[in-house]
Amino acid sequence: MKDYNEDYYLLFANPDYEEYDIEPDDSSAKRNYDSEELDFGQKPLIFTTETSDLSFANGDYEIFFPIGSIVVTDKLKVKLEEGLYGSKFYPAIVKGEDKGIREDVWALNVFKPLDCWDRNKSIAVYPGGAKSLQGIDVLPSIKSFHLSHEVLDEIPENDRLIFVMDNTDVTNIFVHRRVVDIFFDKNIKGVNFFKVSQYRFGMEFV
């Protein structure tokens, strides 16, 4: 049996590179790009860094981190887009607060997250210990993941190299080791990877 916990990694922003954190403008935030599919042909999503100048991110292969998604440069998008599950790359713009702009970037538009965490083997904590309140399911905080082979076996590997986990309290992006290899090969800054088998909640903040 294939051990997906050895093949997949969680992708996080590296806390030592806060300059790569970005915020959507009010109009973009209202478009729910992290939960609803956007139609091509509309305005690009617009994000701003917390730095005055964007000159720190002028490479061909860059990644930025809005809450609930990622934004990547055009050349990185080409490397990643064939393996997306339940998402697509949508045109975006990243600006410095005062200076600099990149229009060759794409935001990950997530519209179909994948529920593939094993309820019996993952460690999940429910607020107050309740799994539902008044008939409404409560989303748990996952302290460690165990991926379900029953779910993943049904999806061809090339169609799930990148996916977002469903039915948890925060957005977690999972990537196959083939994707991790791309980031290391291109020496891309600002990102951390944690193998699923080794990840424990909180590692991403250190």
TrEMBL record:
<dbReference type="InterPro" id="IPR012433">
    <property type="entry name" value="Imm11"/>
</dbReference>
<feature type="domain" description="Immunity MXAN-0049 protein">
    <location>
        <begin position="58"/>
        <end position="196"/>
    </location>
</feature>
<dbReference type="Pfam" id="PF07791">
    <property type="entry name" value="Imm11"/>
</dbReference>
<protein>
    <recommendedName>
        <fullName>Immunity MXAN-0049 protein domain-containing protein</fullName>
    </recommendedName>
</protein>
